[in-house]
UniProtKB/TrEMBL annotation:
Source species of the chain: Oryza meridionalis
Highest rank taxon of the organism: Eukaryota
Binding positions (Mg(2+)): E28, D45, L47, D48, D179
Primary enzyme class: hydrolase
GO MF, one annotated term: metal ion binding
GO biological process, one term: signal transduction
Pathway: Polyol metabolism; myo-inositol biosynthesis; myo-inositol from D-glucose 6-phosphate: step 2/2
E.C. numbers: 3.1.3.25
Protein name per Swiss-Prot or TrEMBL: Inositol-1-monophosphatase
Classification via PANTHER family: INOSITOL MONOPHOSPHATASE, PHOSPHATASE IMPL1, CHLOROPLASTIC
Reactions mediated catalytically: a myo-inositol phosphate + H2O = myo-inositol + phosphate
Length: 251
């Protein structure tokens, strides 16, 4: 497994370093490499959904997002879908101001405007801490009031699904920049909305994300927001993490 993650990252790095030798790169496997003062930061998850990959369970993905001064500028997520005997891929990509595409076709979030008619998705990190418990409770609450809450296991694919209009929203605590940099731009460019789980303005260095079709965003924040504020009151740290020290940002 780890071998596949590393192999995948090395193939991606070879291309990025050759094409953009003066950019900074943050890879999940290899950490930071390149020019620490570059305005460009590549965030690479060479295999998102490792557990799914190990079991041959759809889906998993490769996620690559590049930031310019902290803001997502271009991204792509290649999702491996289908499963044994019917694997295929779809490539979802976006550029800032240029829209979002899947296999070359423009994509758009759904128009569903009620949580009761929404299919929702969340994720649970490896650390079973207070935020994890809070999210188990959110999972229960939203299972009661929506069409269902799914837990697929690849954050980047989960966000692509919101952009494709298959699902209405996705949220998770404790993701890392390489999990989110590509997906958040894809959702925004597909007409959706991105915030932190307390409703605050999102950066890829934050520790929570809520992406949605935009229409149901505030309805979701009605419960997700206060639950997140309670965690903050308990002293759970949601401040920026994984931000390279010298990396210049516009926020
Ligand atoms: C994980 C997946 C999963 C999410 C976890 C991530 P990995 O990434 O995105 O869906 O729930 O929080 O860590 O470890 O498979 O690259
Ligand atoms: Ca990941
Ligand atoms: Ca990974």
């Amino acid at each position: 497994m780890a071998r596949t993650d590393k192999l995948s990252e090395s193939v991606i790095l070879e291309v990025v370093r050759k094409t953009f030798p003066d950019h900074l790169i943050l890879g999940e496997e290899g950490g930071l490499i390149g020019d620490a003062l570059s305005e460009y930061l590549w965030c690479i998850d060479p295999l998102d959904g490792t557990t799914n990959f190990a079991h041959g369970y759809p889906s998993f993905s490769v996620s690559i997002g590049v930031l310019f001064r902290g803001k997502p500028a271009a991204s792509t997520v290649v999702e491996f879908c289908g499963g044994p005997m019917c694997w295929s891929t779809r490539t979802v990509s976006a550029s800032s101001g240029g829209g979002a595409y899947c296999n070359g076709q423009k994509i758009h979030v759904s128009k569903t405007d009620k949580v009761e008619q929404s299919l929702l998705v969340t994720g649970f990190g490896y650390e079973h801490d207070d935020a994890w418990v809070t999210n188990i409770n959110l999972f229960k609450e939203y299972t009661d009031i929506s069409r269902g809450v799914r837990r697929l296991g690849s954050a980047a694919a989960d966000m692509s699904h919101v952009a494709l209009g298959i699902t209405e929203a996705y949220w998770e605590y404790r993701l890392k920049p390489w999990d989110m940099a590509a997906g958040v731009l894809i959702v925004e460019e597909a007409g959706g909305m991105v915030s932190r789980m307390d409703g605050g303005e999102f950066t890829v260095f934050d520790r929570s994300v809520l992406v949605s079709n935009g229409v149901v965003h505030d309805q979701l924040l009605d419960r997700i927001g206060p639950a997140t504020e309670d965690l903050k009151k308990k002293g759970i740290d949601f401040s920026l993490w994984f931000k390279p020290d010298k990396y210049p940002t516009d926020f």
